[in-house]
Amino acid sequence: MSMELAGKLTNVQIELLKLFKYDLPEKQLKEVRNLLAAYFAGAAADEMDRLWDENGWDNDTMKQWADEHLRKKH
Question: What is the pTM of this model?
Answer without folding.
Answer: 0.62
